[in-house]
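U., I forgot to send this yesterday:
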Amino acid sequence: MKKAVLFDMDGTITLTERFHIQAFTELFAKEGIEYDPVAHMKVYAGAGSKLILKDYFAKHGRELSAEEIAHYVEVKRDLYNRIINENEIPFVKGVHEFVNHIESLGLKKIIATGNGDLNAVRYILRKINLDQHFPNIISISEVAHGKPFPDVFLAACERLGVTPAECIVLEDSANGIQAAKSANIFSIAFETTTKKADLLAAGASLVLPDYTFINDAMLA
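Result:
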């Protein structure tokens, strides 16, 4: 049996990636920048706002300074917070039961997210009654590189006191799966935001519709 489960957040625990897309859509519209949500999911899911903002502005002929990037990160954060306040938070089928089950097995757990706003992450967890189950949360803002680099998952392992071989990563994006593969961690991907073929091509060990398809043999 593995010793720990490393959860992504958006698209893996909650179906909130669309709220990020809505926030970016509003931000870029105000700046007169064409934004492609499909490309966002394929290229940038899990990579973090700094990289997305830097790349999109650069593609439209504007190189942002560090101060400008920080400003737009805050603008996007404010938009996202407004959206999650206004909406119910949908979650991936079976997540509550799965969390309870791995707790009964004594497995450690942590959220390793591409969302740099941990206050928003905790707020969402409270809204879906999972906040008490996840005292451990780490984001890409705490490491040198976001997904698809392995940094956040390796840092999560270190925080829990386990090795990559003792863990399972749960993800929904190709970038997240690539990060898990680079960290040499077994991964289960959910088909919530990304096509199965793309998840397998990224290196997913297994691809499933949701938590109800996970059995104890997969945790071995």
